[in-house]
UniProtKB/TrEMBL annotation:
Pathway note: Sulfur metabolism; hydrogen sulfide biosynthesis; sulfite from sulfate: step 2/3
Keyword Phosphoprotein set for record: yes
Protein name, per record: Adenylyl-sulfate kinase
One GO CC term, this protein: cytoplasm
Function field: Catalyzes the synthesis of activated sulfate.
HAMAP family reported in the protein's UniProt record: Adenylyl_sulf_kinase (MF_00065)
Protein origin, superkingdom: Bacteria
Length: 691
C-alpha cells in the first residue's frame, strides 16, 4: 500500500522560503555561498534544489565558466515566485503570532498584531511597508524571458489598473485575481472566504476560447496593450459567473444604465480566471510621472515628513472653491495632513479627462499650505458602486498610509437608473463605511455639502446655516457648470478659481466651436443615407467646421471590406465607425454616421466613445419596416423573405428601437429637405450651430 502524502512541516516550509528568497535576492551566487546564507550544508541544499526543480519552482541551467563549484545556475520560475509570496505571508503570519504570544507573556496585553481570520494584518502602523507582489529586478529579467514562452492575455484598460494595484500593494491583502470561492464570498458577503473584509470582485475576465485553451495550474503572461509583459498568473480557477447575480449584489440592480453593469454584460469576457499574480514590472505611464506614487512610496514620503495623521480626499472632478473649503475643514477636524488623491484610471463615462483634471489640480495646489498638503495620482478603475465602493476606497487609502478618509454625499454614485431615480441613497455610502470603519482601520470624515453665503462671502456647510432665511445662499450644480462652459457663459469667482476655469475652457470650448457627431439609425431603406447627405450639404454650406459623412455602404467598402454580416461583424463595423467619428469630433470636426446600427448596446458604446470629446446626437429614422420594404429598389427584403439573405435586420435579425434618441424623424409623406432641417433645428437647440 503506497504511503500517503505528508503535509510539509513548518520547518520544511521555512527552509523552502529561505532558499527561494535567497535565490531571488542573489541568483548568481555559488551553491556554497547560498548554502552558507541559508544556514544548511551543501548536500542538503542540493537535495532541496532538486526537489524544488521537480516541483517546478526553480529552473536549473548549465553555467559556463572555469569554476567547477558553479556548474549550475538556479532561477525562480513564475510558479516559484508565486510560492515565495505565499510562503512569505505564511512565515510572517506565524512570526507575528509568536511575537504576540511573547508580548502577552511579558506585558500581559496583546500586541495588536494578531492576524485577522488568519490573514496577516501588517498595517497597524500606517507608515510601515506593505507587501508587494513584485520579484527582484534580476529575477524579473529572467522571468520576462520565461514568460515570453507562455500563453498571453492582452489586458484591457480596466484590467491594467487592477493589475497595477494588485502588484504594488494597493489591493493588499489580495495576492492575485480572486478565485471562485473568494469571488462568491465577496459578491454575497463583502468578505473573502477567510472572512477578511473586501467589498469588490477583482477578477480576470477572458473570452471562452482563451479560457478553453488553458489547463488548471498553467501559468499565463499578462501583457499591456503594447504587448509588454507586466506579470504572470498561475490559473487556479476557471468558471462562468452569474453576472446578473453579481450586478444585483455588488451594484444593487441588474440595470444597464449603471456603467459597471453595462461593462459587465457588454464588455467583460464571459469566463473568469483566478489565481496568484507575480509582478515583473509596473505599467508605464508617460504622463505626470512625478505625481504617481505606489503605496510604499507614499508611506516612505509620510515617514520622511514625520506625518502620522493623513486625511485622503478622493476626487474624479476638478477642484473648485467648495472643495477647497471642504478639504480645509476635513483636515482641521481630523487634525491631520491632507493628501489630495484623485483617480486617474477609469471613471464614469462623460467625466472630464484626467489630463485636464490634473492640470486643474496643479493650478490651484499653491493655494494649499505646502507644509501640510500633498497630491498623488491613483490609477484606479472605479466601478461607481456607491456604498461598496466607499468601503473599497477606504481600504485602498489605508494601504496608501492614510488614517482618515473623506466620504462624500452619494459617494461614487453613477447617477440615475433606468427609471430616472438615483441608484443609491444620498448617505448610504457614509452609513456602510461607518459600520465597517474600525475593521478598515481608517476613520471617516463626513463630506459636508458646502454652499456660498453671499453676505458673509464664505463657504459654509449647508446644514449648519442657522440664519438661512436671512441670507443669500448660492450654489452651482455640476449640470449648471457644464451648461455655462458649453455656452461660454460667465463662471463666477466665488464658485471656482480663474486658473481652473481657464483649463476647463481650453478643453471644453463653447459648444458652437466643438466637434460633434450626428448618428442616424434605422432599417435598411429608411432614408438614413439620403437625409445624411442632405444634412452634410447644409452644414458645408454654413461652413466653419469640416464635415465627414460615414455612410454604411461607404464604410463597408473602405474600412470593413473583410467583414461579413454576423452579429459580431456588424458590431465591429459600428465600433469602427464610432472610433473614426470620435477622432473627428475630438479634432473639432463634424461626423455624420448613417449605418443601420441595430443593437442598442453597440450604439451606447459609440455614444460613450464620442462623448469623451464632444456632443452626440442620435437620430432615429423611424420609417416602418413595411414602408422600407415597399421602397426596396435592390430587392434585399425579397431575398431576405426567401431566406437567401441570412441575419437581415427587421426580417431574420432584431432591431433595437432607440428608447430615447435626441431626435426621431418620420420620413413617410415628408420630403428629405424637411427631415434634414429638423436635424439642423435640433443642432441649433443644442447650441452646436449658431442660430
Amino acid at each position: 500500500m503506497p504511503a500517503s502524502p505528508t503535509t510539509p512541516s513548518h520547518e520544511d516550509e521555512d527552509l523552502l522560503f529561505r532558499i527561494l528568497s535567497q535565490l531571488d535576492k542573489a541568483p548568481d551566487a555559488s551553491q556554497r555561498a547560498t548554502a552558507a546564507a541559508v544556514g544548511i550544508s551543501l548536500g542538503r541544499l542540493n537535495a532541496q534544489l532538486r526537489a524544488a526543480a521537480e516541483a517546478g519552482l526553480v529552473k536549473v541551467s548549465a553555467r559556463a565558466g572555469p569554476d567547477k563549484r558553479q556548474r549550475f545556475a538556479y532561477a525562480l520560475t513564475t510558479r516559484g515566485a508565486a510560492e515565495k509570496i505565499r510562503l512569505t505571508d505564511q512565515f510572517l503570519t506565524r512570526k507575528f503570532a509568536e511575537y504576540d504570544a511573547l508580548h502577552a507573556e511579558l506585558t500581559g496585553t496583546t500586541s495588536g498584531l494578531v492576524p485577522f481570520k488568519y490573514r496577516t494584518k501588517l498595517m497597524q502602523n500606517n507608515l510601515a511597508p506593505i507587501p508587494e507582489l513584485y520579484v527582484s529586478y534580476d529575477s524579473a529579467q529572467k522571468l520576462k524571458v520565461e514568460a515570453a514562452e507562455l500563453k498571453s492575455h492582452d489586458l484591457r484598460p480596466r484590467q491594467i489598473c487592477d493589475l497595477e494595484l494588485l502588484m504594488n500593494g494597493g489591493f493588499n491583502p489580495l495576492k492575485g485575481f480572486l478565485n471562485e470561492e473568494d469571488y462568491n464570498s465577496v459578491v454575497d458577503t463583502m468578505r473573502l472566504a477567510d472572512g477578511t473584509l473586501w467589498p469588490m470582485p477583482i477578477t480576470l475576465d477572458v473570452s471562452e476560447d482563451f479560457a478553453a485553451s488553458l489547463e488548471i495550474g498553467e501559468d499565463i503572461a499578462l501583457r499591456d496593450q503594447e504587448g509588454v509583459i507586466l506579470g504572470t498568473m498561475t490559473v487556479t480557477d476557471r468558471w462562468e459567473p452569474n453576472k446578473s447575480h453579481e450586478a444585483e449584489k455588488v451594484f444593487g440592480a441588474d440595470d444597464d444604465a449603471h456603467p459597471a453593469v453595462n461593462y459587465l454584460h457588454n464588455t467583460a469576457g464571459k469566463i473568469y480566471l483566478g489565481g496568484p499574480v507575480t509582478g515583473i514590472q509596473q505599467p508605464v505611464h508617460y504622463d505626470f510621472r512625478g505625481r504617481r506614487d505606489t503605496p510604499n512610496e507614499l508611506r516612505a514620503y509620510f515617514r520622511k515628513l514625520g506625518w502620522r495623521r493623513i486625511v485622503a480626499f478622493q476626487t474624479r472632478n476638478p477642484l473648485h472653491r467648495a472643495h477647497q473649503e471642504l478639504t480645509f475643514r476635513a483636515a482641521r477636524e481630523a487634525q491631520a495632513n491632507l493628501l489630495i488623491h484623485p483617480v486617474v484610471g477609469m471613471t464614469k463615462p462623460g467625466d472630464v479627462d484626467h489630463f485636464t483634471r490634473v492640470r486643474c489640480y496643479e493650478a490651484v495646489l499653491d493655494k494649499y499650505p505646502a507644509a501640510t498638503t500633498s497630491m498623488s495620482l491613483l490609477n484606479l478603475a472605479m466601478r461607481m458602486a456607491g456604498p461598496r465602493e466607499a468601503v473599497w476606497h477606504g481600504l485602498i487609502r489605508k494601504n496608501h498610509g492614510c488614517t482618515h478618509f473623506i466620504v462624500g454625499r452619494d459617494h461614487a454614485g453613477p447617477g440615475k437608473n433606468s427609471a430616472g431615480e438615483d441608484f443609491y441613497g444620498a448617505y448610504d455610502a457614509q452609513d456602510l463605511f461607518r459600520e465597517h470603519q474600525e475593521e478598515i482601520g481608517i476613520e471617516m470624515v463626513d463630506f459636508k455639502h458646502m454652499v456660498y453665503v453671499q453676505e458673509r462671502a464664505q463657504y459654509e456647510p449647508n446644514d449648519e446655516i442657522e440664519d438661512r432665511d436671512n441670507v443669500t445662499i448660492l450654489n452651482i450644480s455640476g449640470t449648471e457648470l457644464r451648461r455655462r462652459l458649453a455656452e461660454g457663459l460667465e463662471i463666477p469667482e466665488w464658485f471656482s478659481f480663474p486658473e481652473v476655469v481657464n483649463e476647463l475652457r481650453k478643453t471644453k470650448p463653447p459648444r458652437s466651436k466643438q466637434g460633434f457627431t450626428v448618428f442616424f439609425t434605422g432599417f435598411s431603406g429608411s432614408g438614413k443615407s439620403t437625409i445624411a447627405n442632405a444634412l452634410m450639404v447644409k452644414l458645408m454650406e454654413m461652413g466653419g467646421r469640416p464635415v465627414t459623412l460615414l455612410d454604411g455602404d461607404i464604410v463597408r467598402k473602405n474600412l470593413s471590406s473583410e467583414l461579413g454580416f454576423s452579429k459580431e461583424h456588424r458590431d465591429l463595423n459600428i465600433r469602427r465607425i464610432g472610433y473614426v467619428a470620435s477622432e473627428i469630433t475630438k479634432n473639432g470636426g463634424i461626423a455624420i454616421c448613417a449605418p443601420i446600427a441595430p443593437y442598442a448596446t453597440t450604439r451606447r458604446a459609440v455614444r460613450e466613445d464620442v462623448e469623451q470629446f464632444g456632443a452626440f446626437l442620435e437620430v432615429h429614422v423611424a420609417t416602418s419596416i413595411e414602408e422600407c420594404e415597399r421602397r426596396d429598389r435592390k430587392g434585399l427584403y425579397k431575398l431576405a423573405r426567401e431566406g437567401k439573405i441570412k441575419e437581415f435586420t427587421g426580417i431574420s435579425d432584431p432591431y433595437d428601437v432607440p428608447a430615447d434618441p435626441e431626435l426621431r424623424v418620420e420620413t413617410e409623406n415628408v420630403d428629405v429637405d424637411n427631415c434634414a432641417h429638423q436635424v439642423l433645428l435640433k443642432l441649433e437647440n443644442m447650441g452646436l450651430i449658431a442660430g
